[in-house]
Write a structure and sequence with these properties.
- This protein has 211 residues and is α+β, with helices and mostly antiparallel strands.
- Among the domains are: 2-45, Ribosomal protein L9, N-terminal domain (Ribosomal Protein L9, domain 1); 71-157, Ribosomal Protein L9, domain 2.
- The protein contains 6 helices and 9 strands; from the N terminus they run ββαβααββαββββαα.
- The chain has helices spanning 23-30, 41-44, 47-72, 95-106, 153-189, 202-210; strands at residues 2-5, 18-20, 36-38, 76-81, 88-93, 115-116, 120-122, 124-130, 139-146.
- It starts with a strand and ends with a helix.
């Protein structure tokens, strides 16, 4: 279905944009929340008005929250946690916990729903984004370290994971190269196909023999 956005929607578009979305997303979220309406000919006549008024409101919000975005950008939140040998947590670090930590660190109240992050369930270094406005989305870093160890241990885990991922990538790449080489060798070793055009017609062959 096509909807006309009445308000800015994170990762979708700005007020006044016309977007094609899944029927369920439109009917169950955008329309009931007042974030959009069906893009009917009548609704589309309001596009310029919606863009103009929302642009004024957006600029005002960006100015009001600019200092908040500066405080949050690059902020590091540290969480000690209990985890198994594989690094999987006994529990998780939730957005509510992150919002509480932000308030403690900066004095800024953030609704947990403004945090673009899934619950964190492993040790290491994780990234999350805070949706202040569609233009202001500061990134924060969440360090999750094992209880009894230094917070910096989270970086060691992240580096080990990156190295392992790089190793897997190189292995897959090497495997693809070997398969390509084997295919090329097999093609070269195969007997050449007979050239059908080079074969004389049966009549021609008989005539040649008769001569």
């Amino acid at each position: 279905m096509k909807v006309l956005l009445l308000k800015d929607v994170y990762k979708l578009g700005r007020a006044g944009d016309v977007k094609k979305v899944a029927d369920g997303f439109g009917r169950n979220y955008l329309l009931p929340q007042g974030l959009g309406v069906l893009a009917t000919p009548g609704a589309l006549k309001q596009v310029e008005y919606i863009r103009r008024t929302s642009g004024v409101q957006r600029e005002k919000l960006n100015q009001e929250l600019g200092s908040v975005a500066e405080r949050l950008e690059g902020l590091k939140l540290v969480f000690p946690a209990k985890a198994g040998e594989t690094g999987k947590l006994y529990g998780s670090i939730t957005t509510a916990m992150m919002a509480e930590a932000i308030l403690k660190e900066t004095g800024t109240t953030i609704d947990r729903r403004q945090l673009d992050s899934q619950p964190i369930k492993t040790l290491g270094v994780h990234k999350a984004h805070v949706r202040l406005t569609i233009d202001l989305v500061p990134e924060i870093t969440v360090l999750v370290h094992r209880e009894g160890e230094a917070p910096e241990s989270a970086y060691a885990i992240a580096e080990a994971e990156a190295a392992a991922a790089e190793g897997v990538g190189e292995f897959v790449e090497l495997e693809a190269e070997l398969e390509a080489e084997e295919a090329e060798e097999a093609a070269q070793a195969a007997p050449p196909e007979a050239d059908e055009d080079a074969k004389p017609e049966s009549g021609e062959a008989e005539a040649a023999e008769a001569d």
